[in-house]
Amino acid sequence: MNRSKTALILSMLLLPSAAFAANPPPAANKATPPNPADTVFTAWDADHNGSLTQAEFRQGWARLQTRMQVEQRLRAQFQHLDTDRNGTIDAKEYAGVELAKKAGTAAPMSRFDLNYDQKLNFAEYVGLVQTLAPNMPAPAAAPATGR
C-alpha cells in the first residue's frame, strides 16, 4: 500500500469527521502542523521504505488498539476518582488515588499539576500514572473466575 493512500486511510480512521469540519485547512502563510496520519504512517513503517506491508499495518493496528484500551481504562479510573463529576481531580479526590497513597510523600498532587490550578485534568492524571505505575510492584495475578 503506498504512502498517500495509507495516510488517507489512517486519517479517516484516526480523526473523527467532526474534526475536519471544525478545523479548516491552515492559511498558506502559516506553518502547517504535522498531519497525524503521516506521523502514524512513519511510526508503522518499520523498514522506512515509504510503504506499509500487511504485517506492518497489522502490528501498527494492534499497537493502536492496545493504546485505545489503555486509554479507556484510564478514563474509567479518572471518572471513578472524579466523584463530583467536574472533569478534574481536586485535593479531596486525590486522597483516594491508590498510586499516590502507595508512593507516599514522593507523590504530592502539585508534582503532577502542570498548570498549577490545584486540580488534575485527565492529561495530568495520565502523567501521574505514567510516573508512578512503573515504580509499583506488579499486582498478584487474579484467580480465574471461569467466565
DSSP summary: helix tally: 7
Low-confidence stretches: 15-23, 137-147
Biggest β-sheet description: none
Tell me what the CATH architecture of the domain at 70-136 is. Orthogonal Bundle
Shape: elongated
Overall strand count: 0
CATH level 1 name of the domain at 70-136: Mainly Alpha
Strand residue content: under 5%
Rg is 20 Å
CA distance, first residue to last residue: 40 Å
- Helix/strand-derived class? mainly alpha
Mean pLDDT: 81
- Please give the share of residues in helix: 40-55%
CATH topology title of the domain at 70-136 = Recoverin, domain 1
What is the element string, with H for helices and E for strands?
HHHHHHH
Could you state the CATH homologous superfamily of the domain at 70-136? Answer: EF-hand
Query: What is the chains' assembly state?
Result: single chain
